[in-house]
UniProtKB/TrEMBL annotation:
Protein name in the entry: SnoaL-like domain-containing protein
Domain SnoaL-like, first and last residues per copy: 5-130
Record-linked NCBIfam families: SgcJ/EcaC family oxidoreductase
Source species of the chain: Rossellomorea aquimaris
InterPro entries: NTF2-like_dom_sf, SnoaL-like, Steroid_delta5-4_isomerase
Amino acid sequence: MSEIQGVLENYKQAVNERDIEKFLAVYSSDVHIYDCWGSWECKGKDAWRDSVSGWFHDLKDNGDVLKVGVEDVVIEENTNLAFVHCAVTFAAYKEGSEEKLRQMTNRFTFGLKRVDGSWLITHEHSSLPINMEDGKGMFDLR
């Protein structure tokens, strides 16, 4: 497994475990995120922490566990910079159950830089295609 794939694996595990600190460990302090939920952008790790904390707490309060799948991964990297695009599927289950409640797949792009020997996400963009007839996100394409 490459170091970049390790970053994606950490992302998956941290979401499944709802572990905020583990999740944030792969983000740079100056991360810039375009997420498809709630706001236009999120600048900096502290602001991202607020968003992630809300997300993980809502999951816990609802008794939901997310299993994350990453597919169609393309990684381009050089010595200090890397670019990744992939499809990320979030499948929700009730804690302790194998019954899937819902699922959605987003398109993700990550920009990473090497800092003190470790890869950190400095930019993240997630998106969903939009139905042009009704303006709604298309959650069920995959």
